[in-house]
Every structure is written in C-alpha cells, then in structure tokens.
Amino acid sequence: MFRRVFQLRNSFGNVISVCKSCPSHQYSKCLSKYSTASTERKRFYQDVSISQGDDGLYEINLDRRKLKTPGGKLFTVPNEALAIAVATEWDAQRGTLKFYTMHLTTLCNTALDNPTQRNKEQMINSALKFLETDTICYRVEDPPGLVDLQKNEWDPVLHWIENRYNVTIGSSSSILGPEIPQATKETFRQHLNSYSLWSLTGLEFVISQLKSILLSLGMVDRYLTVEQAVLLSRLEEEYQISHWGNVEWAHDYDMYELRARTAAGALFIQLSSENLTVKHKIMQD
C-alpha cells in the first residue's frame, strides 16, 4: 500500500515550498509559548535585509531596525545561509505577520534564548529518551494487516539504522518497548555530541514531531525524505484511514501541518550546520 506512496521527492526544499503556510505545532510548553505568544500582528516594515556584524554573525534587519529575540537579545545566526532563510520567512509575510508559520525564526529564538536553560548534555539525554518508546520500535499484535504493514515499512528503516550506526535496537510488542543495550545508547550519545547546540535544537524539534529519534536520524542522514518520515510516523493512522475512510479535510490538514514542521526542522539542522558563506544578494526587487 505504501510502496507507491513512497516514490517521493528527494529534497527538503520541495516540501517546504508546498507547506510553508501551515501552522506551527507545540513540541514543548516553552517552545509553544515562544511560537504563539503573538499569533498575528500587522506588518510594520517594508524591507528585509541581512548584515554581518563585527563578530562574524549575521543579523536580520527590518527596515533600519535590527530583529531581536523574545528575550531581548540581538537576533544573530551563525551563517549567511540560515540568515537568508529567516529573512525570506519575514519577507514572505504580507499585511499580517503570522508568527505560527515562521518555524525557522522560532527555532532560532529558542537556540538564542534557550528558555528551558538546558545545556548540551541535557538536550542529548532528552533525545535519547525517545529510544525507549520510539515509534518504529513499538509493534502491535493485531490486526494482522497492520502487523504486516509495520514489519514491511518499519523494519527496513530499523535495519538501516542498525547497520549505519553499528548498533542493536530491535522491536517489541510490549508496552514497555524493546530493551535498548547500553552500548547502543552510548553510540548515539557520541553521535549526538558531535552536533552543535543549534543543530540539537532542530533535531529535538523534529524528534518531537515524529515521536522517533530513528526516523529523525534517517531523515537527517538523507535515507528518508521528509514525506517518507512523516508517513512512517503516521503508519497506524494511515492504516485506519485506508480501512475506515478519511475525515473530511481534517486528516490531510494534519498531514500537511506535520510535514511543514518536520521540513522546517530538517532545514534548520542542515542550515545551522552550514559553514559556507552563500554569496547571494537577497530581497532584490
């Protein structure tokens, strides 16, 4: 059933361009407060531009005013590529600013203000907790059709992850999930430790959307597209829809909303890790 569905585009960009208008989603109480504190506001600027400060960081300018975070810090990003993406997000707003559509801005604000006041080790621990209850590790025992679907669609991803990182994970139908070996946890801990705080912010956001660190890593490693990862995270729901039908517009809306958030998070991880300067003038008329 899903093999045909999974013949999808292989880039993050196509997904984002389709779904950039979808609303944001709460992945934690604090981030939700950041992203929806002011849901809408009249646009108060004409032009958007970027500039590089003396410290090498990039800033976003709304007319002559420099953008600041909700915490009052100067809004700065580590490279030009991410600055362009955020500036494009602001420039795309029309008469009314819809902050709940500005996922990259929200993620940058979170990375800069760190409202939960967590360090890198705490963020890694939070991500690793998903190994115990990962979406693709928990399997149902009934109905047979869903059992087969989980095996056919999730097992290839699980096997790829185990080979890619040389770990043992497994699956379980127990409500407690599989027992993850300590060596596996340490391998993933070392891998996540190579991420910057910014990239971890994006990864944690993606994990919270998919309820799966394994699908998230598969997507970041380009084994899965955004659309594939989202469909795999919703496998049981899609199975139920195939049998009982779709609620008018609601399921599609949820799908596009989740795809938009996941795509934005994936792009944020990629851009926050980007070291090359993008030599491109933006916001040209």
Automatic annotation (TrEMBL):
SUPFAM superfamilies named among the record's database cross-references: ATP12-like
Location in or out of the cell: Mitochondrion inner membrane
Keywords for this protein: Chaperone, Membrane, Mitochondrion, Mitochondrion inner membrane, Transit peptide
GO annotation, cellular component aspect: mitochondrial inner membrane; mitochondrion
Keyword Mitochondrion belongs to the record: yes
Pfam families for this protein: ATP12 (PF07542)
Protein name: ATP synthase mitochondrial F1 complex assembly factor 2
Gene from which the chain derives: ATPAF2
